[in-house]
Amino acid sequence: EAQVTQNPRYLITVTGKKLTVTCSQNMNHEYMSWYRQDPGLGLRQIYYSMNVEVTDKGDVPEGYKVSRKEKRNFPLILESPSPNQTSLYFCASSPQPYPGGNEQFFGPGTRLTVL
Amino acid sequence: TQLLEQSPQFLSIQEGENLTVYCNSSSVFSSLQWYRQEPGEGPVLLVTVVTGGEVKKLKRLTFQFGDARKDSSLHITAAQPGDTGLYLCAGEIRGGLTFGKGTHLIIQP
After folding, report:
1. B103 lies within 8 A of chain A by CB
2. CB A100 within 8 A of CB B91
3. Could you tell me the pLDDT band of residue B94, with boundaries at 50, 70 and 90?
4. How far is B101 from chain A (nearest CA, A)?
């Protein structure tokens, strides 16, 4: 089944403890991205990648890192999480190396709580 | 500053009524997309509009792209409880994708 998977789905952690949220797609998509969704602020892009080894900052990249070593995987790394990174995170992928006009396929989301 | 402004933010209407949701910007977009998101799930694409003035229909949903490609609207005819959800518009900006804050729509039986 064509899909975007994220792990974990739920995570409660403490301030400063490094964590990684994995994202994987099996559709051979070029474009992958991470979003966070917060009440009143909507869906905001954190980082995106147009191809392997090519990543770029979105609207809210501070406090996050990403890597794209393989086409299918795009992990989100929080080196030192803080409470303001408590949010619902979505990974998405798209067939072409640019998002405009191309359907974004979203993962099921990861709910992160940083205490 | 929000590049894509959606209105209204919240809308609660009775089953059978019509409604329109707006997505406005001061920027020109090569295309705009509309997504629908249900609680606990990721957004799902409804439609992509590309040409200024374009109108697309998806059953009871009608999507329009403004002539100047700065705005779009979603009109729902005879709304049903199954239309309840969060509706999001999105456009590409310099390789990234920006979303509006969304319209929370509740259709009451």
Report:
1. no
2. yes
3. confident
4. 4
